[in-house]
């Protein structure tokens, strides 16, 4: 099997994408609309409302662009559909899908051997230190299937090459 061959693809759920982007855009527009109807009790009030409104609108746009991509599982690791490496298989130590895991909604958490750089693709995945969170806008059922496949691949790798 070729290392670059796709084993599984985790697509973004269109309904989740629309709802999550829509909620953020709604919040942004709500904060901006409060600028026109409220009287400023403090001098920084309008600035804060404007900044929050713009922040949520920029976040909505960023999530819309980021959620246009899928996650692709290959023999050598987990990648974004743009080709960016999310987590190489050789670095993955364990998968955490527990209720109390600090993971995205309907997703899973990968723990790697070495810390990677910080990265965040809103609604799809994030990486901080040795932890990689996958989930958010993808379907929960598909995310569980991908987590199962990754767990099986990690188990197969560990039985072939015992750690020292």
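Q: What amino acid sequence fits the structure above?
A:
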């Amino acid at each position: 099997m070729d290392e670059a061959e796709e084993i599984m693809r985790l697509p973004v759920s269109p309904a989740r994408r629309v709802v999550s982007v829509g909620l953020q855009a709604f919040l942004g527009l709500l904060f901006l609309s409060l600028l026109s109807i409220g009287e400023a009790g403090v001098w920084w009030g309008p600035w804060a409302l404007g900044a929050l409104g713009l922040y949520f609108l920029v976040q909505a746009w960023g999530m819309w662009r980021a959620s246009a991509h899928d996650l692709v599982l290959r023999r050598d690791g987990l990648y974004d559909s743009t080709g960016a490496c999310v987590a190489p298989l050789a670095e993955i130590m364990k998968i955490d899908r527990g209720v109390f895991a600090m993971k995205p909604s309907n997703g899973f958490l990968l723990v790697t051997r070495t810390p990677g750089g910080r990265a965040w693709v809103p609604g799809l995945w994030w990486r901080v230190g040795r932890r990689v969170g996958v989930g958010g806008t993808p379907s929960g059922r598909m995310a569980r299937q991908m987590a199962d496949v990754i767990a099986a691949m990690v188990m197969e790798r560990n039985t072939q090459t015992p750690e020292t």
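Q: And what stands out in the fold?
A: The chain has a mean pLDDT of 87.
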